[in-house]
Amino acid sequence: MGAQAFEEGVATLLASYRAIPAGATVRLAKKTSNLFRKRADNPHPGLDVSGLDRVISVDADAKTADVAGMCTYENLVAATLPYGLAPKVVPQLKTITLGGAVTGLGIESTSFRNGLPHESVTEIDILTGDGEIVTATPTNEYSDLFFGFPNSYGTLGYSVRLKIELESVPPFVELLHVRFESLAELQKTMADIVETADYDGERVDYLDGVVFTAGESYLTLGRQTDEPGPTSDYTGMDIFYRSIQRVTRDRLTIHDYLWRWDTDWFWCSRAFGAQNPRIRRFWPKKFLRSSFYWKLIGYDHRWNIGDKLNARKGLPPSERVVQDIEVPIENTTDYVEWFLENIPIEPIWLCPLRLRQPVPSGADETRPWPLYPLEPHRTYVNVGFWSAVPVTPGDPGHTNRLIERKVADLDGHKSLYSESFYPPDEFDELYGGENYRLLKKRYDPRGRLLDLYAKAVKRQ
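^ that's the sequence the OP posted. Answer follows.
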């Protein structure tokens, strides 16, 4: 977008902040979102971030990029791939923004070696609740905000510009789908690969998995390569997650690998009929993407279409169970077996992660990111499940509460992009507590931004 266009975007942002009445809650005026929790309508104008949606510059030699906060990963990848570079972690959906992944949570198949998106950030310009833009780095006077910003979900400020590290990527990814009939064996193999980045003598650059049933699960191992050869295409009739069950080895371009899950929103497109061959044949290809499914979800949220259709069939309304949780890798089998026995949702996604080492200078060596306090040197597994179950009469959040309790019992966490039901004291213990209060006092002393509990649990 260039420096001048970026500065114009910043000027528009600040003007929109000044237009918000004093005492009114400051929110983004975004047309799209990747959050699955409803929130109260905002009667006031929001922050205009329309000019902050592009890459500012790419330094191919230094392998870094300056990126405006509302730039989507689709636009970011499009700017870096021509240099043979990509972000160290590319979340699976094209419309996730870099700023959203950093202030929220993003994860992908490089996370076992590259950690989470915020760990590739070297500095951030943040618009605080007081309308001031500060530049936070791991070692400057705003280092507390730098480390406290991840998982704050816009309650400590909004990212305006981020400088991030990139990594070299060759043109292709070779895939190996390894089937398991035992979850315990899958867990052991995954743990070994995280430690060695190797499977049966083959290097592993990408690692994630899918559980269809307790007796049918897979790890997908990716190896970067520049060797030419034929590639598969999962942007049309073919569906990526079904290929995992059909073929052992596969091959994609790096572009198609990064977006392999977006075409069918993992497997969630089946809820809209998009996986029915008779419908898919006529479904416009430009609408085979997560952003279009999001629009359909928005219509459902607005008019409760799904519940109305259930009522016509004599069925109860649905409770959305759309979550990503992390448990220590040694507890993966326990959690997944419990989930399959108690929650009628399948498939589920697995993605191992580890915080990068060493932790940045100036960080707390034991819990460097205080609002999402994963432990260094410890491997976790993200478990993703995105569907709905029949609502429990008198307790619309029953299933989500069961999941929260089980995750806590297994020393895990869950991200806050969807609905949460924690009581205040438990939420305080899990998500920053006193660290968060100190940051809130320093960077939003007038309370212009929502409190994290109010935003994540009360859905204000």
